[in-house]
Design a protein that fits this description.
Elements lengths: L7 H12 L3 H9 L6 H29 L5 H8 L2 H15 L1 H14 L7 H15 L4 H28 L12 H7 L2 H13 L16 H30 L2 H4 L5 H10 L1 H34 L17 H17 L2 H28 L16 H20 L1 H28 L1
Helix pairs in contact: 1-8, 1-11, 1-14, 2-10, 3-9, 3-10, 3-11, 3-16, 3-17, 4-5, 4-16, 5-14, 5-16, 5-18, 6-7, 6-14, 6-15, 6-16, 7-14, 7-15, 8-11, 8-14, 11-13, 13-14, 14-15, 16-17, 16-18
Length: 431
């Protein structure tokens, strides 16, 4: 790391930290409510990784061509129209990062095994502590993020290695058969993919800080693709270890899948310490989201007069934007509305990522008019088609299953649209 820039390793750490959250240790129980074949379950997690990797390939190409921080806000503003980028940024600014930060903070307290604490206030205190860390400078943020991400990888890898070497007696059979092909073509498998895709969310994290890399055209693809590949391998092996040591019937419907598997592998006394390990893993996830979210706000603030108060300070740290995100996260924790917000937020953010992925087609068509010396997605347009089709299907299903939350999301988007025109009006007055 040199001056006010970060290296590829820190970008890699941010992607891994954003992706690996509590979902990897909890969602298997819900999948086993409807699916029974262990190989079908593993196929679900591998397919989720392929979907995330398809997105990472596309973002690497778009990001190294446009070469701007801000993620979807910057990409969509340039690929389509500023209003499209603004609305994407609005979602990120208001709830896109604040809601998952709130959810992870509450999960941290719930998993922490050694004292009884008020989950809301301790969650707020944790977010405050991490926010203050990221207000210092990029060097401090980078060190904090790298340390906790390395710890996260070591803990998960250690658990996987132990689980692979210990003999399992779960009774689950890992074989292909009629039940496998029946399950992977069923509606429960499709529903399971939606929740697995949420567990993989965060693969695009490094695209929000493109301009903070020393060599973005090399660092961004490494961070996005390398981080996604690693998490795909870890996630798939982790589910295999769970299924190797605990029967499907015992795991079905359970939230604390990791603790149950740890008890089966190493004894009940270990379950308590494994809960502590999950808490430590979540610190890395919260830190990565606290770091990234305000960068979107500061990008908007540099262009739209109404948001100028949230421009970054002289050292490039968006301190006021960090405080704004902390305030929103606190409100969501106190009100307890973040879980509902996560549903409609997921739909809107998936639409944004789809537009970015489709942007690869736009850039290829305009290749002769712009600088296309950045990363090139392999096997074009295979991965883009895979991502677009699966994402469209998941959005459609979510809208059908959660019409109320989707409607609330549309209202938030409408408010964002009003703020855009108000911002443009102020821009004209003060230009």
């Amino acid at each position: 790391m040199k001056g006010n820039k970060i290296g590829a390793i820190t970008g890699f750490a941010i992607v891994v930290a954003n992706m690996i959250g509590s979902g990897a240790f909890t969602s298997l129980g819900f999948q086993l409510n409807e699916l029974n074949n262990p190989v079908a379950i593993l196929t679900l997690w591998v397919l989720g990784g392929i979907l995330a990797l398809a997105g990472a390939f596309s973002y690497a190409e778009v990001g190294t061509t446009i070469n701007k921080s801000g993620g979807e806000y910057s990409f969509l503003s340039q690929l389509y129209h500023p209003i499209i980028g603004y609305l994407s940024g609005w979602i990120s600014l208001t709830v896109g990062f604040a809601a998952p930060i709130a959810l992870s903070a509450i999960a941290f307290v719930d998993y922490f095994p050694f004292m009884n604490m008020n989950s809301k206030w301790m969650g707020i205190a944790l977010i405050l502590f991490i926010t203050i860390i990221h207000m210092q400078n990029l060097k401090t943020s980078s060190r904090f993020q790298n340390i906790f991400t390395i710890l996260k990888i070591i803990l998960i890898t250690g658990f996987i290695v132990i689980g692979l070497f210990l003999s399992g007696d779960s009774g689950n059979t890992f074989t292909l058969g009629q039940s496998y092909f029946s399950e992977i073509s069923s509606m429960p498998f499709a529903v399971g993919l939606i929740y697995v895709s949420y567990s993989y969310s965060g693969w695009n994290a490094a695209a929000y800080i493109t301009e903070e890399f020393e060599k973005p055209k090399k660092a961004l693809p490494f961070a996005l693709i390398g981080g996604t590949l690693l998490v795909t391998v870890l996630y798939s092996l982790l589910q295999f270890v769970f299924l190797k040591h605990v029967s499907s019937d015992e795991l079905a419907g359970q939230v604390n899948v990791g603790a149950i598997a740890a008890n089966a592998m190493l004894g009940k006394s270990i379950g308590r310490f494994f809960s502590l390990a999950i808490s430590l893993l979540l610190i890395s996830s919260i830190s990565a989201m606290v770091w990234i979210g305000p960068r979107v706000t500061s990008c908007i603030a540099q262009k739209y007069y109404m948001w100028r108060f949230f421009q970054p300070s002289r050292n490039g740290i968006p301190k006021r934007a960090l405080w704004l995100q902390f305030l929103i996260s606190t409100i969501l924790i106190v009100s307890g509305t973040f879980e509902q917000i996560m549903i409609y937020c997921g739909v809107l953010l998936t639409i944004s990522t789809m537009l970015v992925v489709y942007g690869v087609f736009i850039l290829r068509i305009k290749g002769k008019e712009i600088d296309m010396k950045g990363y090139r997605s392999p096997l074009f347009p295979l991965f883009q088609i895979i991502y677009l089709l699966l994402s469209f299907w998941m959005i459609l299903f979510t809208i059908i299953e959660a019409p109320k939350e989707t409607a609330i999301g549309m209202i938030n988007l409408l408010i964002g649209l009003c703020s855009y025109f108000l911002s443009k009006k102020k821009d004209m007055l003060y230009s």
